[in-house]
Structures are given as C-alpha cells and as structure tokens.
Amino acid sequence: MENLNQPKTEILFRKPIIKVIGLGGGGGNAVARMVRKGFADVEFIVANTDAQALLNVSGAKKVLLGPDSSSGKGAGGNPINGEIAARESASAIREALSGADIVFLTAGMGGGTGSGAIPVAAEIAREQGAITIAIVSTPFSFEAGRRIANANAGLSKLAAFADTMIAIPNDQLLKISPKSMTLKETFELADDVLRQGVQGMTHLLNGFGVINVDFAHIRSMLLNGRGSILSIGRGKGKDRIAEALHQALNHPLLERIPIENATGIIANFTGPEDLGFGEIVDAMNYLQKLTNYRADLIPGQIIDPEAEDGSVELILILTGIASTPFETGFEKPKEYQKEIRSENASKTASVRRIEPQPVQSSENVITPPEEGIAAAEFSYQTTRRISSVKTSVQPENDLAPEGDAAFSSLLSPLNLGNDIKAAEADPFADSLIDTRRDLDVPTFIRRKL
Predict the structure, then answer these.
(1) 160 and 220 share a domain?
(2) What confidence tens digit (pLDDT) does each residue in 400-428 have?
(3) How far is CA 121 from CA 48, 83, 87, 92, in A?
(4) Where are the beta strands (DSSP E) in 272-422?
(5) pLDDT value of position 4
(6) Of 18, 40, 277, 432, which one has the fewest beta carbons inside 10 Å?
C-alpha cells in the first residue's frame, strides 16, 4: 500500500542562463540592434569606455569601462587603453556576467575598446565557469596599418579565452551586399550571425524535443574540443535537410567550415511534425562520412508546430577543428568519394569520385542543392575561401540580375532579406574624442572618404 505520508520528490529544472555582452562601439551597436528585435531568456550587456555611446543604448545593462583611466571619453583607438580600462572595471564585468552558463561576446576588432577589452571579458567569463562564444568582425582590407595590427593582436589574446571564436571579415560583407545597400544595413548582415548563434543556442538548450541535447554534453564538447565553431542553416521543400546542411556548411559570411578536422558534432534539427527520423539519419550518416567516421556525433530534434512552409532549421556545432579565425588558408583534400542517395534510388548506393577544383579567393562559389542529401553539393569545392584582410579589395560592378538572385537566395535562408532596418544614429557623431584620430571609428568615416 502506498505510504501517503511519504514526501513527494520535487523535480527542479533550471534553464541555462545565456548572456550577450557587446564591447566597444561595434559590439554595443550589435547588441542594441539585437535588443530591438526582442529575445526571450537572454540578458544583454554593453560595455564601453565612451560614456556618450552608452547613453544611446536602451534595454541592456550598461558597464562604463575605466571611469578613472578613460574618464568616459573612450580609448583613443589604443587597445592598451581598452585593456587597462577593462581590468580597472573587472569587478563590474564580473558582476554583470555572474551566473551565466553561456556568454556570447561581440566586438568590432581594430579599435581600442573592443580589441582591448574583449579578451579581458572572455577571461572573466571563463573564470566564472561559463562557456565563451566570441563573434567578432575584422577590418576592411583598405583599413591598412594600425587597425589591422590591433585586430590581429586582439584576436590572438581572445583565442586563449574563447571556447568558440567566429571572425567575420568585413571584406566578405562587400562581396555579398549590393552597392546600393547602406553601411549600417551591411553591418546588420554581420549582426545576424550573432543573432542566429544566440537564437539557435537558446532553442537548443531551452526547447523540449523528441531527441534532446543536454547542456552538460554541449559544455563538455565545447570545453574539451580544441577549437569549435557554430553555424546555422535553413531549408524547405522535399530537400529541406540537404538545403539546411548546405547552408550550415557554406555560410556566406563565415570562413570555410573545416568539418574534416572535427572530433565532435552536435546537429540539432528543428522542424514541423512531419520531419522524418529517416531524413535526420541520412544527414548524420553524411556528416560522419565528411569526418571519415572519427567524430562523436550527437543528433537532436525539436518539433516546432509553427515552422513556416515545413521548413527545417539546423544548428551545427563542430568541435576539435582547431581552426584559425583570421587567416583562412585551408588545404583541400586531394580526393574523396561521395555516396549518392535519393528517395527513388535503389538500396545499393552508387559512388562517384569528385576531383578537387581550384578555389578562387576573390569570389564565392555557391551550388544550389539538388535532390537528395549527398547530391546537394556540400563538397569542399563548393565552399569559398575568404581572403585575409591583408589582401586588396578589387572594385566590383553593381550586381547583375543573376547576382541579385544569388544575393536573395543567400539572405532568404538566413531571414535577412526582409529584416534589414536602419540602425541607430552613429554614436561617434558627437563623441568627445577627436574622430579624426580615434581608431575606434573606421578610416573611411574618420576621413570622410
């Protein structure tokens, strides 16, 4: 007989706490734009040495860095000043990040505050036991000299404290955006990588699915993975899984995803109720082939009844890639075999050999997926190689009609095309710093080119 006096066991569930901190002018602007879009279960923080820039941000916790050393007037484009200010305000940063399980850090590299302060913030977050994911932008190649040197130095320091680091070259923004797009609209494309990362991680950790991926496993893989990267893809139609994989492995704003080096993969699919488990198994098999069956692969599936047009979203986390985020001179394998599978194909899979093709550093090569998982050209030949910021930018003509179509196809899976709005007023416009010498401001703005 059941003992009615026996106390009931209470099951407690605490959602992982996710915080996003933007450092410097670029990081603060990115956070401000994200705040306006609205996010649940995410806490936003902005930290800056420029007091006036902080006044332009609402809806986020504010941290003035180095009130004594910078006097609220900025870092003067010197990362050393930015680092000194961040260390002076270490207790304030520590308090703002307290309790976080995952901390996203963002900054525009090249100036003083972002380049100098983001490694300090990442160090503090890691000391408190949080997973650190840094998503930063690097200077345009025409911003030669000190800004590029600042960015390189900042990235080197940041790499020591970031579990995942994603660097978005500003030059890549020029390649995918029409010339009619404004500067602030262009930067919103880069912001969307941060938005997708935060949104995807929130869905992954807080969503209840058919196959759940627990936080402990994500934490273990990211902390012990020797370099990791996060990417997101979306697909719809009969080849939605293939399209989502293609987008995740060939993100238009990220460097080539070196999946062949991965030792761990977390692949979480969010889609409608008709998302078949067989589709996911096909995707898992394909990913394992790309890693030569060496990766610890963890699948996840979340049902979203409100998924539009039966679309599928893939959150792909690769660990163990040990990639360098700034220089992207990856070598491609000499050859590999790829199994062709489709719904109407026989159970005996046909095999075809794909010879490597030369990769041009000045253009993206994007192949739309065909029918079936492996037939969607996910090969290394379809990925692009992003030039180092040390290379020159060649002038381009306005996009041809086919270029506009390609641009639309890139933005559509990322929900970028209809989501671009004018950003807030330039916080540097009335800054107390001499903008002609402040390297936190891009060269072409300072010199009014």
Answers:
(1) no
(2) 343 344 333 333 333 333 333 333 333 33
(3) 12, 10, 9, 10
(4) 296-303, 312-319, 336-340, 350-354
(5) 60
(6) 40
Token pair in block for residue 311? 């679309």
The residue type of 296 is D
* Nearest Cα residue to 195 out of 5, 416, 361: 416
Compute how many other C-beta atoms are within 10 angstroms of the C-beta atom of residue 85: 28
Rounded to two decimals, the pTM is 0.66
Residue 377: pLDDT band (50, 70, 90) is very low
What is the phi/psi pair of residue 304, to 5°? -120, 100
For the domain that residue 175 is a member of, what is the CATH number? 3.40.50.1440
Residues 346 and 230 in one domain: yes
CB-based contacts of 320, cutoff 8 Å, min separation 6: 225, 226, 227, 228, 261, 262, 263, 264, 295
Q: What is the strand order of the sheet 131-138 is part of?
A: 61-64, 42-48, 18-23, 102-108, 131-138, 164-169
The string of pLDDT tens digits covering residues 58-96 is: 899 999 999 999 999 999 999 999 999 999 999 999 999
